[in-house]
Structures are given as structure tokens and as C-alpha cells.
Write a structure and sequence with these properties.
Blueprint (H helix, E strand, L loop, with lengths): L1 H23 L7 H11 L1 H4 L10 H16 L6 H22 L3 H14 L2 H4 L3 H13 L4 H14 L7 H4 L6 H36 L11 H9 L5 E3 L7 E3 L3 H29 L7 H18 L12 H10 L2 H27 L2 H4 L5 H31 L8 H7 L1
Antiparallel strand pairs: 1-2
Length: 415
């Protein structure tokens, strides 16, 4: 076991070194968001909290501001970009340590492959934080439900989308009250801090920011428009608006935006149905871990595939969760989840090809744009397939739940 741990850490060091070298070299352009964080924080005194990165929740801004402020106090402000990458590496290593403690090798090897598959975006954004927090909540749900509730809420505070996993975390009856109570306390604290330092408008600004966005070129809903753009580039406009993500506008994009909204609504209705079923089904069940894992994957993947925006870092919300699931589910269910995770790793690698390697071919039409559109279409079809599979697996796992016998006759018979 010690040799396996040593090998895992050696491979972690080698693969992560390659990612960092790529970030400093051929794929350096991906770090622009971290420079944006630094520039925005430099203007915090002038614009105030309400006018600084309004697209991010206040807790996320505070997380990004902490190293910025500390480095400037020490006179090392120029090291901010490096500090963000270092903190992301530390978070990556912490999650690997968590997986190693489970004693299962499959999740460890999956995580070792995940970061290099997705590439430099893993360290050039802060989305690894909410992804790892949700995964840590899953890993601790059975033994420490209070901590799981707090971690789930912290993930939601940093990026509102993880709020979709909270009902699933509270589904198992054994820890339901503790998850809800601890999560409620953590949520009240986060809301209180957000309102105290930024006001009610700043609390809601990330949601309003999303409402005003257009059709981002990588999203599932934009795929038909991008295919048409490949054949008729003059009919469409690919541009960089104030939302700071490349969007496409042209024939049919308004319909595609409407379709994205409808899809989001339908998937939310489906999730509500699954949450209600899980809460009822796991009320007196022996073990609901498989249900919670698949329900979490279904919720996160539904958000990714139905939205009008699909940034490459969104995969950091689901990769840690899939690896955590591999450490939790039983032998019977692990094979199916391993296949699901393998496809997810392929999706991560294709996303790496799209951004940053081939992104310029999606912004300006050239001879290689057609190839990159094919990569985009395949990636998006696989993502849709993963979402559908996660929903189907959730239904199967709910049907397979073993209920604890409550009738004395049934209890004697089972004995």
C-alpha cells in the first residue's frame, strides 16, 4: 500500500509539473482570468465591492482577495498569479490525499488523469474549489453529515450552481437533520457576511449577470449555430461582449436561447422529481450512497448541458465528484460509474483540445475551423450522453434501494 501511495504521489508530481510548464509556456494565454482577478482587486478601493467582479458571489471574491491582500501587505503583489496557481496545486494535492485515504485505487488513478486531461484551465480558474468541496462533502456524508452540509453550502457560496447538489446530500434519512441544520447555519452565515460587506444587490448580482448573457459558443445550445457558422461564417457574428465570454449571434440564435431556457426548466423539474423520490425512498433505507452519488452527478451535468454558457472550467465541478463517487459506491455499481468517468475523462481531453489549443479556430473562420467544430460537436454530444446516463442511473439506483424491514414478521424472516 505504501508503494502504491508513493507511486501515486510521484505520478501526481510529474503530471502536475507538466501542466504548470504548459501554463508557463505554450498555453500561457489561459491565465488571463487570474490577471483579471488581480486587476479587478486593484480597483476595489475605487469601485467598491458592488462594482468589483459582480459576476462572482461575495465569498468567491473574498477567497480571491485574501492572497491578494496578504501579498500586498508583504510587498509581494507581483506574485499573485503564482499564488493562485500554487493554491490550486495544494487543493489538487489535498483531494488526492483524501482519495488515497479511501484505500481504493480506481478513484486515485482517475484523479491523476483528470487534471492533465483538462489541462491548464484546472489551475487558471478557481472552479476547482467548489468541485473539491462538493466531492469532500460526498466523501464525508456517511461519517460526518454536519461537515458535509457545511461543505456543500460553502461550495454554493463560492459558485451558486452547487446549490443543486444540496437536496441530494440531505436525502439519506440517517443524517438528514444534521445536514439540513448545519447547512442552514452555514448558509445564514454566508448570506449575512455577503449582505454585510456587499449589500443585497451584490448578493443577487451573479444571478442577474447570468440572465443578461447571450449564447456562448461552447454551450450545447449554441452547437447548431456553430455548425452553421462553419458553413456560412458571414451569416454569424462571433464577438466578445461585456460578459467576458465569446458569444455567437445570427440566424436562429434567439430560438436556441429559448430552447436553452426550456431545457433548463425541464431538467430542473426532473431533478425535483428525483429529489422528492430520493427523500421518500431513503427514508428507511439501509444505504443510499449510490443514489446520492448519481443524483449529484445528474444535478451538476444537467446544469452544464442545459445552460446557455459552457465554459471549460465547468468540468472542474464534476470531475472531483465522479472520482469521489468511485471511492464510495459498491462493487456492483462501480463498474458502471467507472465507464461513466472514463467517458468524462475523454470529454475533459476534448475540452483541452478546444481550449486553449484550438480556440482561435472557433473565433475566426479558417481552414481548421471545421475540424474544431467536429471536436466541439463530439464533446457536446458526449456531455449530453453523460447527463442522460446519470439521470437513468439515478432512477435505477433508486429502484434498487433496499428498505429496512419494519414489520416484526419480516424482520424474523430476513434473519
Amino acid at each position: 500500500m505504501t508503494a502504491d501511495r508513493t507511486r501515486a504521489w510521484v505520478l501526481w508530481g510529474v503530471t502536475r509539473l507538466i501542466v504548470v510548464l504548459l501554463l508557463r509556456g505554450a498555453e500561457h494565454g489561459a491565465i488571463l482570468d487570474v490577471h483579471y482577478y488581480a486587476e479587478s482587486l486593484a480597483g476595489l478601493g475605487e469601485h467598491g465591492l458592488a462594482g468589483t467582479m459582480p459576476e462572482y458571489p461575495v465569498p468567491a471574491l473574498l477567497v480571491l482577495a485574501a492572497p491578494y491582500g496578504l501579498l500586498h501587505v508583504l510587498g509581494l503583489g507581483g506574485l499573485y498569479v503564482g499564488s493562485i496557481v500554487t493554491l490550486a496545486l495544494a487543493l489538487d494535492a489535498w483531494f488526492l490525499a483524501m482519495l488515497l485515504r479511501t484505500g481504493r485505487s480506481t478513484p486515485v488513478w482517475a484523479w491523476l488523469a483528470a487534471t492533465p486531461a483538462l489541462g491548464v484551465i484546472s489551475y487558471a480558474r478557481f472552479d476547482l474549489l467548489p468541485g473539491v468541496l462538493v466531492a469532500a462533502a460526498l466523501l464525508g456524508l456517511a461519517g460526518a453529515p454536519r461537515r458535509a452540509g457545511v461543505l456543500g453550502v460553502l461550495a454554493t457560496g463560492v459558485k451558486y450552481s452547487p446549490g443543486l447538489v444540496l437536496p441530494g446530500l440531505a436525502a439519506p434519512a440517517a443524517g438528514r437533520a444534521r445536514v439540513i441544520l448545519s447547512g442552514a447555519v452555514a448558509g445564514i452565515v454566508l448570506i449575512g457576511v455577503s449582505v454585510a460587506v456587499g449589500g443585497w444587490d451584490r448578493l443577487l448580482s451573479p444571478l442577474r449577470y447570468q440572465e443578461d448573457r447571450g449564447l456562448q459558443i461552447e454551450s450545447i445550445s449554441a452547437t447548431p449555430a456553430m455548425i452553421r457558422w462553419a458553413f456560412s461564417p458571414d451569416d454569424y457574428r462571433v464577438f466578445y461582449p461585456s460578459s467576458k465570454a465569446w458569444e455567437i449571434h445570427g440566424p436562429g440564435t434567439d430560438v436556441l436561447l429559448l430552447a436553452s431556457g426550456v431545457a433548463s426548466g425541464l431538467l430542473l423539474v426532473g431533478l425535483i422529481g428525483l429529489w422528492a423520490w430520493a427523500w421518500r425512498r431513503l427514508r428507511d433505507a439501509d444505504d443510499g450512497v449510490t443514489v446520492v452519488v448519481w443524483l449529484t452527478l445528474a444535478a451538476v451535468s444537467a446544469f452544464i448541458v442545459s445552460g446557455k454558457v459552457l465554459s471549460p472550467q465547468y468540468l472542474l465541478w464534476v470531475l472531483p465528484v465522479a472520482c469521489a463517487g468511485l471511492a464510495l459506491v459498491g462493487e456492483r455499481d462501480r463498474r458502471g460509474l467507472a465507464r461513466w468517468t472514463a467517458v468524462l475523462l475523454v470529454v475533459a481531453a476534448l475540452t483541452h483540445l478546444i481550449f486553449p489549443l484550438g480556440y482561435s479556430y472557433l473565433l475566426a473562420h479558417s481552414a481548421r475551423s471545421d475540424v474544431m467544430i467536429v471536436v466541439l460537436v463530439v464533446r457536446n454530444l458526449l456531455l449530453v450522453g453523460l447527463c442522460v446516463t446519470a439521470f437513468a442511473a439515478t432512477v435505477r439506483s433508486l429502484r434498487a434501494v433496499r428498505r429496512r424491514p419494519t414489520d416484526p414478521v419480516a424482520t424474523r424472516a430476513s434473519a
